[in-house]
Design goal:
This protein is mainly α and about 100 residues long. The mean pLDDT is about 65.
């Protein structure tokens, strides 16, 4: 059954243009870096610190959503990794804003 799902997934995957994949990778890495740097600077400026387990929970939650999207929307592996790198910092930012509002 799993083998049938893999075959169906491979048949439904569309070939991606290498130039578009490269541009998408650059965009994702740049966005991830900017969001992560701004998040770290905000945390240092406000003297608030996330716990290790909170960050681990956010990363696992983001990875779960990406794993579901990878199989549901037939994403390529590069798109799934890019989606994870976008979702994790944005989720951290929302968690930080929620923590700031609750103080």
């Amino acid at each position: 059954m799993i083998k049938d799902l893999i075959i169906v997934k491979q048949e439904n995957e569309q070939p991606t243009n290498p130039a578009i994949s490269s541009l998408f990778s650059i965009f994702v890495i740049g966005t991830f870096a900017i969001l992560l740097i701004s998040l770290m600077r905000t945390i240092q400026f406000k003297k608030l610190h996330f716990g290790f387990f909170t960050l681990l929970f956010i990363i696992v939650l983001s990875a779960t959503f990406v794993f579901i999207a990878y199989f549901w929307f037939f994403l390529t592996l590069l798109e799934a990794v890019g989606l994870f790198l976008l979702i994790a910092p944005v989720t951290c930012l929302f968690a930080f804003c929620a923590a700031k509002v609750s103080l």
